Amino acid sequence: MNFQYNFQKVVDIKSSAKNQAEWILSTALGELQAQEQSLDQLLEDQNRTLEAINQAIEQCAPISELQDMQRYIAYLDQCIAKKISDVHRAQVDVEHKKLHLTEKMVDEKVWLQAKDKAKAKFMQEHMLREQNALDEMATVRFAMQSR
C-alpha cells in the first residue's frame, strides 16, 4: 500500500515557484555584479584621466588639451553618479528578490511539512490496520484451538 498525497500537485507547484524565485534572484545578483563592475571601470577611468591631467600639467600641455580632459572628467562624474544610482537600484532589487525567495521557501516548507504529517498519519493508520488484522488472526487461531 503506497502513500499518495492528495495535494502533491500543490507541493510540486510550490517547489517550482521556489526554484523560479531562485533563478530570478540569481539574475538580479548577476545584474548587480555587472553594475558594480561597470562602476569600478568608470572609477578606474576617472583615476587614469586625473593622472593624465596631472602629467599634462607637469609637461605644460596646451590649455585646450587640459580643458578637454576636464570636460571628460565632468562627463565621467555624471556617469559615475548615474552608475551609483543604478547600483543602488540593483541592490534594492536584490533585496526584494531575496524577500520573495524567502516567502516561497517558507510556503514550500509549510506544504512539505503538511505532506510529512499526512504521510506519518497514513503510516500510523496502516500499521494500526495491520496490527488489527494480526490480532484478529490470532483470535481466530486461538478460537480454533479451543474447540
Automatic annotation (TrEMBL):
Gene Ontology CC: one annotated term: bacterial-type flagellum
UniProt keywords, alphabetically: Bacterial flagellum biogenesis, Bacterial flagellum protein export, Cell membrane, Cell projection, Chemotaxis, Cilium, Coiled coil, Flagellum, Membrane, Protein transport, Transport
Coiled-coil boundaries: 25-59
Alphabetized InterPro entries for the sequence: Flag_assembly_chemotaxis_eff (IPR053716), Flagell_FliJ (IPR012823)
Keyword Coiled coil: yes
Membrane-related topology note: Peripheral membrane protein
Family the entry assigns: Belongs to the FliJ family.
Name recorded for this polypeptide: Flagellar FliJ protein
